[in-house]
Amino acid sequence: MSAVMISRKVRKWEKLPGKNTFCCDGRVMMARQKGVFYLTLFLIIGTCALFFGFECPYLAVHLSAAIPVFAAVLFLFVMAMLLRTSFSDPGVLPRALPEEATFIEMEIEAANGNVPSGQRPPPRIRNIEINNQIVKLKYCYTCKIFRPPRASHCSICDNCVDRFDHHCPWVGNCVGKRNYRYFYLFTLSLSLLTIYIFTFDIVHVVMRSVEDGFLSALKETPGTVLEVLVCFFTLWSVVGLTGFHTYLISLNQTTNEDIKGSWSGKNRVQNPYSHKNIFKNCCEVLCGPAYPSVLDRRGLMHEDSPVSASSAAPSSSSSSLSFSNNSKPAPPTTKTTAPLIPNEHTPDDAKASIGVSAEQSCSPEDLPPSFIPPLASPETDAEASVAKDNSH
Ligand SMILES: [Zn+2]
Ligand SMILES: [Zn+2]
């Protein structure tokens, strides 16, 4: 019995490689491991519920009705920032299409020449010049692309992420170019909320202790003890984390760069992204343009699946996968079972633009779409990691 191919439409997120999970038909995107994220939710919601249950009724009557109102506003803001960080695309870069990957491989081999057997091939690096400094773009063997400046491959999500900061299990997502400011606002507002609850826990216990004594006060508000304990331990970590990210933002630096020591003195290179002005750096990181996702998760594409000839319609004889926009159908030779990559460009476009030697220096404008997100701003072009001597 012969088999023919039936084409059906699927959302692109269903075929994305990597280890992200999606829900709400691709609208929500997270990392696969979410256990610690649920713990974060439990701690925040649980502590606030205790505060609203035990402290707020007493404080609203004896101190001010504004106390629970301000706590509610702060709580809603914290939750909004957390969910915005957790449920969004952090800046995942699409992997190369099979045709692009093949072309880049050929280009690298041509640039390297014939490497004698037994010798290691030279590292796959492209050099560009940013702010009078030589910058290296490293090749990602998983995504088959030369990573844009400041991008890095997250081993947990198995994707390259633009302006990669770190993978945060507490928010259940990578923190990168598209969600960093929300992550920072989350830590900042959570610090304020923790200090707020901790302070009014103490105020509540003191006021009750003056009336009834310390022990009877604790008996009347058993939730307060739990809140104080949670807030006390949260305070150090969250306030410390906020302070650390404030320091990074003032330097326009990422956690990844800080850990690697990219701009430390021993490398004798300066951070090319820093404006040498704390205010300008903060403005760029926190108030710069919002970057759109380049994944097009909810876009439609055709997927062919083999069925037996007896049940297949005669017209459904397409033999290759193609995107739904049909602007440039895949060539007939692209019959493949490789995962589809939702690149915004076609293989032909990419081939035309990938015209630089792997060893050749080039400006950011010369980079092919595989290296730079299509909608990157001019500022993005200036964002490049300065080459360090990584030969050691
Ligand atoms: Zn990668
Ligand atoms: Zn990640």
Automatic annotation (TrEMBL):
What does the entry give for GO biological process?
protein targeting to membrane
Cellular-component GO terms for this entry: endoplasmic reticulum membrane; Golgi membrane
Q: What is its EC number?
A: 2.3.1.225
* Enzyme class, first EC level, given as a word: transferase
Q: Which UniProt keywords are given for this protein, alphabetically ordered?
A: Acyltransferase, Endoplasmic reticulum, Golgi apparatus, Lipoprotein, Membrane, Palmitate, Transferase, Transmembrane, Transmembrane helix
Query: What are the TM regions of this chain, as residue ranges?
Result: 36-54, 60-83, 182-206, 226-250
Protein name according to UniProt: Palmitoyltransferase
